[in-house]
């Protein structure tokens, strides 16, 4: 559980969040943040009016590098607050669809002039999003599937392969909303030696809680496990599976992940500690699913 020794917050933070809410954010969403990192994270959330509990803004930390990242949902949330907001139209284009795009002679912009579907639709070959706004011309962003090829081989490739429509849709929609509503939060990376942000280098102590294993799965030879031990065995197995989704495989990588994300975990973790670790892993997986449409991956 994170300790909070911040004496004074910025006016924006105190206006946006009650002290007890800040404590929950610190403990559940940014448990590995230093005081200065958390202060910057909370200030960004407050200044932009974003809700960390709604997955609109994230704090991510790997080793000595911290990252404040804005989700695709943040752009949609802020667009809704703008005058003249109208819901965007985001669609996948499949290989068997009838799809045509033409240049508008007046605006000199590409527009979708035909999109008809039939079944079977075939594979996804592209996507487009039209961001509407009352009193403004629609903004259309069209992308070929080849433009996001790197997503299918990157760290979050499993989610892109499994939920291609959702991930691709968020990616292209965010681009359209940014252009239509002039939104650009700008992700911020706080790295080692970043003096401008005033954030000191953070070097967590590595704790190896898996000394004789490649993964977290416990030995299967122990007889007559207690009920709690059975629950721990089950949750450790679930942790191992979900760490693989994050690309964290092998004794050293698992130990490093735990040191960075659950630094207060004991050498002989309790069921509660394992449950807390699983919650952090699931949150990181959610971050990847939501944020793969962000500027960082464009």
Automatic annotation (TrEMBL):
Residues 187-229 are annotated as: Disordered. Pfam families: RecT. This is Recombinase RecT. It comes from Metabacillus halosaccharovorans. The lineage of its organism: Bacteria, Bacillati, Bacillota, Bacilli, Bacillales.
């Amino acid at each position: 559980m994170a300790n909070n020794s911040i004496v004074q917050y910025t006016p924006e933070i105190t206006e946006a969040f009650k002290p007890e809410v800040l404590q929950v954010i610190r403990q559940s969403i940014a448990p590995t943040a230093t005081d200065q990192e958390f202060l910057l994270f909370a200030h960004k959330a407050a200044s932009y009016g974003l809700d960390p509990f709604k997955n609109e803004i994230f704090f991510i930390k790997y080793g000595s590098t911290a990252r404040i990242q804005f989700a695709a949902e943040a752009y949609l949330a802020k667009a809704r607050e703008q005058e003249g907001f109208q819901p965007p139209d985001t669609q996948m284009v499949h290989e068997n669809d009838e799809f045509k795009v033409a240049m508008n002679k007046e605006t000199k912009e590409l527009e979708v002039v035909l999109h008809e579907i039939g079944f079977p639709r075939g594979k996804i070959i592209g996507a487009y999003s039209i961001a509407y706004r009352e009193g403004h011309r629609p903004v259309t962003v069209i992308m070929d599937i080849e433009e996001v090829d790197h997503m299918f081989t990157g760290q979050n490739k499993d989610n892109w392969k499994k939920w291609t429509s959702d991930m691709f849709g968020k990616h292209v929609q965010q681009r359209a909303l940014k252009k239509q509503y002039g939104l650009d939060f700008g992700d911020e990376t706080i790295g080692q030696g970043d003096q401008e942000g005033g954030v000191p280098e953070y070097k967590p102590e590595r704790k190896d809680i898996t000394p004789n294993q490649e993964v977290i799965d416990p030995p299967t030879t122990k007889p007559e496990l207690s009920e709690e031990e059975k629950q721990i065995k089950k949750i450790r197995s679930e942790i191992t599976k979900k760490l693989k989704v994050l690309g964290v495989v092998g004794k050293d990588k698992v130990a490093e992940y735990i040191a960075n994300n659950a630094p207060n975990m004991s050498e002989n973790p309790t069921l509660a500690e394992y449950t807390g670790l699983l919650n952090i892993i699931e949150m990181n997986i959610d971050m990847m699913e939501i944020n793969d449409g962000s500027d960082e991956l464009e």
